[in-house]
Amino acid sequence: MLHFDPDYQPYTSKRMPVFGHKGMVATSQTLAAQAGLGILKKGGNAVDAAIAAAACLTVVEPTFNGIGGDAFALIWMDGKLHGLNGSGPAPQSISIEALKKRGFDKMPLFGVEPITVPGAPAAWGECSRRFGRLPLKDVLQPAIGYAEDGFPVSPVTARFWKISYDKFKKNLDHDLAKPWFDTFTVNGHPPEAGEMWSSPGHAETLRAIAETDGEAFYRGELAKTICDFIEKHHGFLRPEDLADYHPEWVDPVSVNYRGYDVWEIPPNAQGIVALMALNILKGYEFTEKESIDTYHKQIEAIKLAFADGKKYIAEQKHMKHTVQSLLSESYAEERRKLINDKALDPVHGQPPKGGTVYLATADGEGNMVSFIQSNYMRFGSGVVIPGTGIALQNRGCNFSLDPRHDNCLAPGKKPYNTIIPGFLTKDGTPIGPFGVMGGFMQPQGHLQMIMNTIDFNLHPQAALDAPRWQWMEGKTVKIESTFPHHIAQALAAKGHNIQYALEPNTFGKGQIIWRNPETGVLTGGSESRTDGNVAAW
Predict the structure, then answer these.
(1) pLDDT digits (tens, 9 = 90+) for 95-131
(2) Residues 56, 60, 61, 67: what is their CA dihedral angle, to the nearest 10 degrees?
(3) Given 356, 425, 453, 523, which residue is catalytic?
(4) Per-residue pLDDT tens digits for 503-519
(5) Is residue 489 domain-resident?
(6) 356 is catalytic
(7) Domain carrying residue 103
């Protein structure tokens, strides 16, 4: 089991880990965490709690996720880790040629073109049917209540709401953007911290999903409403795209890092980037966290892993190299040899042939869930279906329009997906779920949290509060204002282009729950960079 000093707090935050025994829910928004805990207290299990919190987050934190997004889950149940890929494919009517005829030389970020089939509602239904204990209509009730009755917007959410408001004012044409502004403003302005906001249409959509185990979103009047609006605005999503969609149960992938198995969802998710980097780093010994050498090697390893990830990750059946080859010990050794005392410009290798919300839940029976869902880039495409509260994702923007690329756009193909839940086990025993939301920061956050936990024995809250770095591109690395200045200077001397981040909250938002296998005691941490907390029982 993990060993840490619960009194050890080397950073400025004074927050301590939270302990519980009968259940725990860690999310980025207090109301969602309480909703999940309430479901546990009503007799639900960790899966029910995860679905309740996830649905609630679409209401109370719509800046980072929504009904029209994707979801992934790692579920420990019945002595086994199960993986669910709830990401959706491109519409069948889209193509590289169609985009180029519209004048695009790369995938646009906003509008109808990058919209892919949303997977989150189907993921909720699938998890509930296979592992849930309570009816979905009971599990979604807290979310329905907040959407119908309203809630006071939390501070970090309000800040990002305003950023998205300004972005869509600038980047979307008025006719297409109007439903977003009708839905997500209060008297024409983005809600401020503490201001009440409600979405009756969102409540009705959640109610339809709850009463049909998710079916209403994909088949029937609601599905027709979605597709009619998209077609009216010359988008590609059609009723058959929704009707044909089903989430996919997958085998999680892992690497062993210092005796612990670190688990991720396989591609099309980017979790193997974190695993490739950890595979490189386990060839070194790290005895001190606040060390120039530690940070330098971490940054170099993630650069090499991302160079491979951005070249090779796609939907698995379209990848030229297997996951096994990318995670092989021999390939990790090859990549490790490239790291020296100076910052490098990363390039992909040749393997041997072969905006988001994250939440974690645990119940008193030993079941645990690592769950993540997103609309991407905060509110996603900016396209909202009038009267429904459905903001549609823009995952398709990650496709390449180069037909030679593994991740090139094609009808019915799933794009490279940034959202990744994580899970930790040791010798076949579950330790618990962990995750960091935030686009391409996510594998970097996973790496930093795992090393903070395993190499440096930090408890969950300290592992989350530690100052973070984020590799951007080339030799550029952004750091938080709390990052040690003398180490930043030393990294710059090694050739890294070190930049202090001007925008707050760009380093991801994470949650952790660890379970003591001997006592069943749960220890949780929640991101101090956001509005969340750990609700424990």
Answers:
(1) 999 999 999 999 999 999 999 999 999 999 999 999 9
(2) 50
(3) 356
(4) 756 788 899 999 999 99
(5) no
(6) yes
(7) 18-249+360-398
